[in-house]
Amino acid sequence: MNRQDLIDAIAASTGESKSRTGEALDAIIETMQLVGFGSFSTGARAERAGRNPSTGETITIPAAKTVKFTPGKAFKDAVNAA
């Protein structure tokens, strides 16, 4: 189920509009934290050289912002116990 499917399902069961349901879902996701799961943060990737695989030509890959995930202790323990 993707985000839009979730909004559609919640809106259908509550009778609320899809736009208001989407706003409420966004607010919940922004404030909800899963204790022990981990945390997300932003990172930076520097500009670097790469190759076009079809031509072999050297190209410059621009700098970019990235998403970083750091797992929490409870999540690491659960994965390692399996």
TrEMBL record:
Keywords: DNA condensation, DNA-binding. The keyword Iron does not apply. It comes from the Bacteria. The keyword Metal-binding does not apply. SMART domains: BHL (SM00411). One of its GO terms (molecular function) is DNA binding. Belongs to the bacterial histone-like protein family. This is HU family DNA-binding protein. It comes from Paraburkholderia sabiae.
